[in-house]
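User: Here's a chain of 753 residues. Predict its fold as tokens.
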Amino acid sequence: MKKALLILSATVCMASCAEKSSPEAEMNKFVDELMSQMTLEEKVGQLNLLSMWFDVTGPRMSEDVEQKVKDGLVGGVFNFWTPNAVRKLQDMILTQTRLKIPLLVGYDVIHGHRTIYPIPLGLAATWDTDLIERIAAAVADEASADGLHWTFSPMVDLARDPRWGRVCEGAGEDPYLGAEIAKAMVRGYQQGDLSKQNTIMACVKHFALYGAAEGGRDYNTIDMSRLRMYNEYLPPYEAAVKAGASSVMTSFNEIDGVPATGNQWLLTDLLRRQWGFKGLVVTDWTAIYEMEDHGVGDKAKVTELSINAGVDMDMVSEYMIAELPALVTSGRVKEATVDAACRRILEAKYRLGLFTDPYRGVSEERAQAQMLSPEKLDLCKEAAVKSIVLLKNERQTLPLDASKTIAFIGPLVKNQRNLVGSWSAAGDWSQAVTLWDAVERKFPNGKFLYAQGCHLVESATIRRNTDPNGNVIDDTPPQQLLAEAVRTAKGADVVVAVLGDAYDMSGEAASRSNIDLLDHQKTLLKALKETGKPVVLALMNGRPLTLQWEHDNIDAILETWYAGTRAGEAIADILFGNANPSGKITMTFPRSVGQIPIYYNHKNTGRPFSNDSKFTTKYIDMENTPLYPFGYGLSYTQFTYSGVQLSDSTLADNGYLTASVTLTNSGDRAGEEIVQLYIRDLVGSITRPVKELKGFQKVALKPGESKQVSFKITPELLKFYNADLKWSAESGDFLAFIGGNSDTDNKAKFTLQ
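Assistant: Prediction complete.
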């Protein structure tokens, strides 16, 4: 394509931009010139985001996309990639539209594009923000080389209800950790400079509060006080925005009785005015259309609400295309409002360099060099190893002795599809390495036995609501599979049961009312236990499960999540001790669904739990405590903490103090420990949580080695939003806790003056 076909008269533009001025001023001149030539219909066209045919991620499909592109009625497309396909569509723009404005191309690249990394909840369990940033950069390498400009990630929704399927896409229940991970992902995707061809735009989602859906049921309603919003749910979104995220996606829920997509307080007052966000706001799939079912108006009204609230881009519903011209003519929407939305989209395209090179340097050669490269596969394995959490290890059942006869039993031992989890984008699950393949390669002379044991999913209800192609049931009767598994287990020294959920039992539209291990899988596990052999349970799943029976009866439990393309190798390394588990959970594991919502940073009541009195906040049929608390995870070695030492007992309002412990590896293996700092504000003008995470460090120690681990505590670290929604710290007494999980009672007291 000749450069003469590029947008507008590029020569004139570049001449006008050649004057010495800031990049921002140059962009403004360019966009001003372009918009001066646009009709109202062309401006509205830029607000239209349509889905292509490569993937389906919502209930309605866009139709006649190519014709609408030729007519200048599309500003961006998604669910679409590969160099040839993207170049063809941009060629269409450059040869068959009046203004030749390139398209934005986006996709839900959630935890990898072609190379698939552990699900985000698994990545969060690494507590390694440097690693997460490197992964986001590697994802951007692949995605940009495949023609993508934009990822609908990171999902930063705080989640405290594991019944919600989308907990797999986020960082868990804590605002501090969630904010740190959100910043790392934005930095990794965007690299601080979107003009670099190996970057992609981040999109923070779902704004806001989506993870608090009532009953853990996807798309459900939410009702929350401003204090809870500001102190608990909003910090990860704000952190991502302050890290420079270029776009924000609206959520499906309502806030204060107004759907997020039409909520002016949320999208304009908070996001733009308070936080200073200057990027573009896109809806989630058909969210404008869905406001009609919320009951706030007809087609014209919900379109009016969304654009006036601050939405810039309409994903799939096409209501803006249909309604905005008439709304402007009638005066219900100002043309300046449409102009502002259009400008933000054009600015995003400018920052991506699309007006200089609509193809952003994509080619088959570049794509081939980036996809599933050795460096990315190594990074994938590193992440998988660090994401795995050891939940239980009685009598040092793990690591396994490769000289013993080991039975690998379960429907996930040889299963590839489920290793990459949900939202696995353009990843090829057939490239995933299974546990069976990994152990056979690792120990070619190993005495390994195999039995399927059961089908992955037998529940007709679950199969009806998930992907039948991913949960194929063969004709073997369940009783036959179970009998074969028991015979196999009896011939082994130790059994590894690889069980869990099908990949599509978590993710969007995958909420569950029961988060136990599936009944037929538990039947298999009980039968294996009855053989008298030591049993290791290796779990693959996208959410915390209720594992009380398993915890009480199984010798060792390993949480591997959906660990991605190199999952099998990582699990094998952990099982056989070539790597020492260091992951720690970032969502509380309940004992029962009856405890949900359950999270560590709760508040006290006026009658806090006590065994000494009936009339305190507790259940009569089980403990209040979780099965596994936030921040929990074991190692093959043991770590010993000294008491907390403070550099001073008082903290001045313009100073700092240091809280320290001596950490010792008191076991016989090298290992890594994630040391966690929690703070409790003992008295506040409003009630305060019993603990809040305020810092963490990953520390590697050899056997017998000790190291002092210190945290700097400043007044800024003690601030919260008070009853007037003012961000401030209040003088008084505080406790600093340092330990290996949120249940630590290792503490010291200090006073903020």
